[in-house]
Design brief:
553 residues; alpha/beta; Rossmann fold; Hypothetical protein af1432; 5-stranded parallel beta sheet; 25 helices; 12 strands; 50% helix
Length: 553
């Protein structure tokens, strides 16, 4: 195939720069296209193959830094030259470290710029190969599993430092947060600080009028009202979390539902607030803000390592493992640890980010247990899931009894929009042996499909049924199964340590598991095509089955 003539994409909102650069490059035989906004540039780059990208960093609609970083992640990309009037050594060092070919500071010498670009264009021509050839090469690389190599801690640390240096948190968020931490409460003063940033003011008013914070029909129209209604401290936490979200989600991650992450964060923070109030011991400090921030950790990792996630998502499609399980094998920090480090690098006090670090110690630390339960309850209350989500249930113990958790979940769900169930499946028949007054499995199943509750003595009268046996002994099921032998039409939900005892009666699943695995198990139970024992594969995290998955990580 004949090597194409090199083309350049000139991205700048200054017409003089584009015109002079174009004249120089076309005189050297390099064709040019022009873009004045981020959106135009992204569209042209997706539609055409360019040898060169020459871009300003500041564009009217979006910071083109994200465009540059996205391109640097691609195996086939143009040579990238940044032309900017921002003379910042740290910025230049960061861009060179990421792989940018050159940086030109304005006002540029157009003759010198054209000479440099000609060299890069010639190099591109010499290295160019047909796309089909690359596709074969890429397939071999994918088959070799190179995309799933663990990320070195120093690589993640370097990228996090660059990210927080390039995308600082707004001073308004700091000011609002600090103002709401003071003992003296002045709603008018806090309103004045919030009003400095229009997008933040709009978002806080929207939240103040949402079901989560405004149960009345009276609309809140002023920031001062919002501060009083939502609460001083909560307003500060929401301001900080929203600004962090707005900053960290500038770079698109198409497969992540940012709106869902934010709704879960709001629900989790409400759960954390209610749990902390009922907590007899210490551990509630900072948990509300930690619950708000937690979901952003994955956003950061996904934006920094898109190729790693592309590989992980392909694997999840085959194995139905949860993304959380695979992330723990690929990254030196989990999502909580990543966002904690980002907040630390932004200069926020330790009291803000340290509670996130206790999530790894949920079994041994009161703060970790409280945060873990709040996150699980936030997911349950929201009732929306992505296939790669890990579905887990909040812990029931002496401190947080089933009755308390049920009360909290009821309150949080009343504040949260519940999604419409999928109508393309028949209802799942559901029976309970579990002695718990809190029916968490039914809550999870209801987010997937309509649930038809049946009596225990009706189990044998139905072809297929899901049976909740959490915290129940295996002998508790015996009176309700006539033959007392394995029947693939039964799907039993049991504690992991009891799963072996229940397998003699039917297929068994245990929490936590991925949403995709749960759906396959339940809808397999609900499908005329189901049969045999295949739904046992819906327990990807259970020993010894889990070891087969872990061996591939």
């Amino acid at each position: 195939m004949k090597t194409p003539q090199p083309r350049a994409l000139l991205v700048d909102d200054t017409s003089l720069f584009r015109t002079l650069a174009r004249r120089r490059l076309e005189a050297l035989g390099i064709g040019c296209d022009e873009a004045t906004t981020y959106r135009e540039a992204a569209s042209l780059l997706n539609a055409n193959e360019y040898a060169l990208l020459v871009t300003e960093l500041h564009l009217p609609d979006r910071h083109s830094y994200h465009l540059v970083i996205d391109l640097l992640q691609r195996a086939i990309r143009p040579s990238i030259v940044v032309a900017t009037d921002v003379r910042e050594p740290r910025l230049a060092q960061h861009l060179f470290d990421e792989g940018v070919e050159d940086i030109l500071f304005k006002p540029v010498d157009y003759a010198l710029m054209a000479a440099k670009l000609k060299v890069l264009a010639t190099r591109w021509q010499n290295q160019w190969s047909p796309p089909c050839q690359f596709a074969k090469q890429q397939t071999k690389e994918d088959d070799s599993g190179q995309g799933e190599q663990p990320v070195p801690p120093e690589d993640l640390e370097t990228k996090l430092k660059h990210l927080t240096g390039m995308l600082p948190l707004s001073t308004t968020a700091f000011d609002v947060f600090n103002a709401t931490q003071e003992d003296s409460f002045d709603a008018k003063a806090i309103e004045t600080v919030i009003a400095k940033e229009a997008s933040l003011a709009v978002e806080l008013l929207r939240l103040a009028n949402s079901n989560a914070y405004n149960a009345s029909t009276e609309k809140i129209t002023s920031l001062e009202q919002a501060v009083v209604r939502v609460g001083r401290r909560k307003i500060g936490e929401l301001a900080l979390a929203h600004t962090a979200k707005a900053t960290l989600t500038q770079r698109a991650v198409p497969w992540l539902d940012i709106d869902l992450i934010w709704r879960r964060s709001i629900a989790a923070s409400s759960s954390a607030e209610l749990l902390a109030k009922q907590s007899a011991s210490s551990g509630g400090e900072g948990v509300v803000l930690a619950a708000l921030m937690h979901g952003l950790g994955r956003v950061v990792l996904a934006s920094l390592y898109p190729q790693v996630y592309e590989s992980l998502l392909r694997r999840i499609g085959d194995t139905r493992e949860s993304l959380e399980a695979l992330e723990s094998q690929c990254f030196p920090r989990n999502s909580a640890g990543v966002i904690a480090r980002v907040l630390e690098l932004w200069g926020l006090p330790e009291s803000v980010w340290s509670p996130l670090l206790y999530l790894d110690e949920a079994g041994d630390h009161a703060t970790g247990r409280l945060l873990d339960s709040a996150l699980a309850m936030g997911n349950l209350a929201t009732g929306s899931w992505q296939d790669f989500d890990r579905v887990r249930l909040p812990s029931i113990d002496d401190q947080f009894t089933a009755s308390k958790l049920n009360s909290i979940l009821t309150q949080v769900r009343q504040r949260t929009t519940t999604p419409v169930k999928d109508a393309c499946y028949a209802p799942v028949r559901y029976a309970r042996v579990s002695p718990s007054e809190l029916d968490l499995p039914k809550m999870v199943l209801s987010s997937l499909v309509s649930v038809e509750s049946i009596a225990l003595d009706a189990i044998e009268k139905n072809d297929r049924v899901v049976i909740d046996c959490l915290d129940a002994a295996a002998y508790s099921l015996i009176p309700f199964v006539a033959d007392r032998t394995f029947d693939a039409r039964r799907l039993i939900i049991a504690n992991r340590q009891d799963a072996k005892e229940f397998r003699r009666f039917g297929n068994v699943i245990s929490f936590p598991l991925s949403y995709a695995a749960l759906r396959q198990a339940c809808l397999g139970t609900n499908s005329e095509k189901s049969g045999g024992t295949q739904v046992i594969q819906a327990i990807p995290f259970q020993t010894p089955i889990a070891s087969a998955f872990d061996a591939h990580l």
